[in-house]
Prior knowledge:
Layout: E1 4-5, H1 24-49, H2 58-84, H3 87-91, E2 94-96, E3 99-101, H4 103-129, H5 138-164, H6 170-191, H7 204-213, H8 215-224, H9 230-248, H10 278-293, H11 300-329, H12 368-392
Amino acid sequence: MPTATAQLIATPTETSVRSAAIPWHLAIAVCGACCIPLGALWDISWHMSIGRDTFWTPAHIVIYLGGVVPGLTCGWLALRATFFGAEAERTATVSFWGARAPLGAWISIWGCFAMLTSAPFDDWWHNTYGLDVQILSPPHALLAIGMFSVVLGVLLLVLSWKNSVGEAQRGAVAKLFVFMVGIMTATNSIIVMEYSFPNSQHAMTFYLIVCMHYPALLVMAARAGNLRWGATCAAGVYMAFYAVLIWILPLFAAQPMLAPIYNPVTHMVPPPFPVWLVVPAVVIDLLVGWARRSDVPARWWRDWALALALGVVFLGLVLPVQWNFSAFMLSPASDNWFFAGHRHWPYSSNIGPWLNDFWRLDRDPVTARGLVFALALACGACRVGLWFGNWMLKVRR
């Protein structure tokens, strides 16, 4: 039975320290990974504005370029390390079935194959069943796993480079790592977008999803990024990515092509405004930075106590911020180019007063019991983020 040998942690030596310059293959992989959330959000807007006319839409092409470009780049890394790599280069890789490549390259290659497998599956699904009722249909679930794997693989490629450069040059590569955490946050947010409309932000499910979905990534950026404002920058990248699409997409004309048409839009529909993760991220950076500089001995309970504090901070800030911001988003004051408060409804929405109301208040109210559960999820996610952050500080392959 074939096995994969993955020695991920290596002790740096003078000969293994890499140049601080970003190599061309890493820059290409990062650009490719950015195409994934860009194409996915563009595709959602396409479905909301035009419908599904053909598989070969520009948005679909951008999505699959986001998988193919990093996949081919990582495939080239595997071929070079396996057949042409020097001994020092081969020792900085992971062996799989006799071939060698960095850990992130193997993950991106697998994600690329998953994305390409989902393409004909998704085309058949739509031709058979029509439009998806929810984002996570079976082919979209496979596509989402592939997209996450590609972005994670590129993130680990950047991480291994960051941990292998000299200490003096590490800050520049750390910024690229934090940027990739922001791209991963934007990619993951697409999965839960249907639960993130302002109308859902007075319901308990929204806060459960937010507490389970985002804290680990922010804490991971703060711990492994080695930057003073790592989590804040990652949250800023996520929010800026959404904001740019909110501002740019409505500039392009669009016409619905698939009945029924209840809301005859005339432009590309933007995504809803992102969650204000930058607010708790600032405090997360302060707490993680304080723990890094603290003289308290590194005992087993230290990260657990820090995770508890981070979870309390995250929920304690997200709840009032999103509660009040969502009320603003449902008001006429948000109906402008900046917030696009009432412009994210698809052509299939039957426009009426219900679009200005909070949903599921009777079936899914915010309760003390639900908030306790949300706090537990946030603390658990923060602990996972600290664990992964500690592990990421040691990855060099």
